[in-house]
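Hey, can you fold this one?
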Amino acid sequence: MMDFIKLHNADNNSTVIIRIELIAVIDTDTIIKGDSNRTVSTIFLKEEADMKEFKVNETPERIYEMIEKLRQ
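Sure. Predicted structure:
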């Protein structure tokens, strides 16, 4: 059975549904826009995914909690 989590795109807050088996690395990143900085997470996907990376609003810790909850 495939497990999915719902995240939010850092560019426009749109919903992103991702299969957790495709996630390779989750890293914290800072977006600098004008005089303000915003922390987001960059999701790097495994080779078999059509996309390679994208940014989301959720922290790596929150994403890990979501994955742990699915695995219980």
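The longest helix spans residues 60-71. Let me know if you want another pass with a different chain boundary.
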